[in-house]
Amino acid sequence: MTDLVVMSLEAWDGVWRRNQHLISRLLEGDPDLRVLFVEPPADPLHDVRTHRRPQRGHRPRRRADLSPRLWTMQPVKALPRRIDPRADERIARSAAKAAAKLGMTDPVLWVNDPAAADVARLTGWPTLYDMTDDWAAAARSGRERSRILAGETYLLHHAAQVVACSPELLRRKSPARPTSLAPIVLIRNAVDAAAYDREWPRPADLPAGAVALYAGTLHGDRLDVELCVRTAQALDERATLVLVGPNALDAADTRSLADAGVILLGARPHEQIPAYLMHADVLLVPHLVDEFTDSLDPLKLYEYQAAGRPVLSTPVAGFRDADDARILVTDAAEFPAASTRAVSGPADEIVFRSAPDWSDRATALHAVLGDLTLS
Asked: What are phi and psi for residue 276, nearest 5 degrees?
């Protein structure tokens, strides 16, 4: 394998997720590899409707700050899909055209977004479908859910290799995978272990006093906003609830959090996250517990464990099954009171716990990609 086109669910920005960690290590380990990372399309009309600065998309840009063999691009969805039913096909064609201009004549296709099934249909490139969430179980409109299901069904039946990040995703999706194709492979998430193997100064934007901290994207599919409000109210003057991560909540939920005294710090570069985690008095996981969150293998499980701090979580996948005495799992009704007890007790010494490293996961993925190119 020398060329890889990645159809990602997230942009390549300072908040690193599974894709960025794996791709950066694949590039480090394979000097011949070139990667075109295709971000979710710009949607200028939607930006205008939601009072955001319209994004215009961009052609492939070499990311020499990360690797001379990495390019990112952002296609454009000019019109809503209900008006332009060929919107996903146009996005697929723009990705294929960009790859051709980079000289990627026969790349491997790595798909996260089920909507990108059109790229596999259009190009016939050997395809890896990397499942990170069960989007079919997420709360979506009927039209969007149908689109997700159609893309996922195509990929499960046509992708040469399929990877799942959690045992639950493996269990749910395996029956839909034809037995004539390679079975779904489990490659879980991990952590940049070296980033936690040092002392970090306390971030200047953390409030004084005790801190109960959540790190991750603030998204209504995962975060229990009402529970966060009740937790902040219960903590009162004992501690401050701090949320670190990109804010994808609507304006009403954001106001509810702010009115309850929650501090929303916004996104921070991935290199800085260990400092926030390691200076928290308790790390929180106030997540919804439903069919969608049960499909996840939370990155924060590995990050929280590597940080060595006490953890309080609702009974969500990953945390409820963790063999770690520092993780306390409680239901939403008891969560606020448990948070108060966690920050009121004596300060715990940081105890580091070994966690799987992204380099090991990249090695496993490289083997899957190698099988794909030989198939």
From this structure: -65, -45
89-114 pLDDT, tens digit each: 899 999 999 999 999 999 999 999 89
**358/123 Cα distance (integer angstroms):** 30
pTM of this prediction exceeds 0.85: yes
**How do the domains of the chain map onto residue ranges?**
3-190+358-374, 193-344
Convert the pLDDT of each residue in 54-69 to its tens digit: 888 899 999 999 999 9
- In order of 11, 12, 15, 110, 213, the CA distances from 19 in angstroms are 10, 9, 11, 10, 24
Q: Rounded to whole angstroms, how far apart are CA atoms 332 and 98?
A: 47
Strands 58-62 and 70-74: antiparallel
For residue 259, the surrounding DSSP H or E stretch is helix 251-259
H/E element, 71: strand 70-74
Q: What is the CATH number of domain 3-190+358-374?
A: 3.40.50.2000
CATH class of the domain defined by 193-344: alpha beta
Strand 34-38 relative to strand 127-131, pairing:
unpaired
For residue 350, pLDDT beyond 60: no
Model pLDDT, residue 346: 61
C-alpha–C-alpha distance, residues 325 and 312, integer Å? 11
Q: Which tens digits make up the pLDDT trace of 249-304?
A: 999 999 999 999 999 999 999 999 999 999 999 999 999 999 999 999 999 999 99
Fold equal for 3-190+358-374 and 193-344: yes
- Residue with structure tokens 């007890």? 341
